[in-house]
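look at this record:
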Amino acid sequence: MESPLAARVRSGDVRASARLMRALDDRLPGADSVLRELFPHTGRAQVVGITGPPGAGKSSLAARLIAHHRGSGRSVGVVAVDPTSPFTGGAILGDRIRMQDHALDAGVFIRSLATRGHLGGLSRSAADVVAVMDAMGKDVILVETVGVGQDEVEVASLAHTVVVVWVPGLGDEVQALKAGVLEIADVLALNKADREGADRALRDLGALLKLRRAVQREPGWEPPIVSTVAIRDQGTAELSAAIAGHRAYLEKSGEGQARAARRARSAFLGRLRERLLDGALDRLEREEGPLDEVAVRIAARQQDPYRLADELAARLPRGAGERP
């Protein structure tokens, strides 16, 4: 029998959904069981990742995309991942401020999450929140990452389409390729395209895409570059068309199914790692004491971290995932 909370989420109840999202983010008991109930009712929303360096205008561009989708009658969910405050441990909710024009729209649900030190540009619970919004019946879910850097490309394992936002004047555009950001781009948005240096940035990004095509083993989707000026709502329609074009390509080429399998694999492995780590840390605390105390002994060379890790791993299958 479906739980009352799961039923309320599936009916689109905002308060119930927000409560579940908070419980999932805080890892409260019982939250995962509700998520399991909702799983069969997910997989229908279009998930669009928006990533790029800090200051590129990701939030402003997301706000324009929200307005575009709402104008077309689509409901929208937004997962905005913010850096964790070093003082409060919570999210710095700048994205909600920049998207405040949509705060009173019942067809828009915006959720800010703190990274809580999680690498990869996303929060550890971002995938769970996306699943809840999907179960709520949102047509489109925008996932805006914290500003990316080296290896922070995790959004590619969550979104159907990844929009990489770039701006002129950031220096050598080859750094985008080194950071791995260009490789995950399905659509490139050159925002603030009214700035000096926009023409050069377009040429450099085009050259990098040509290089990317040269090293690909098989031909496939070629990411378009769309010039935008978010603060003036310029290029929003073209960007939306490019995203829609990528979705059509995924459906027609069969790549969508392959990506879905990769996303499922990544999500499963992530959850499995978390469960195994939780089980290992629980066992460590029971047998050796709190982690902080163990770390002190390791730092003082009173305990061997290699032996301890090997012993925990060897015993993990018998008690992995157990919670006292």
In short: The chain has three domains: 1-41, 42-253, 267-319. The chain has a mean pLDDT of 84. The two ends are 27 Å apart (CA to CA).
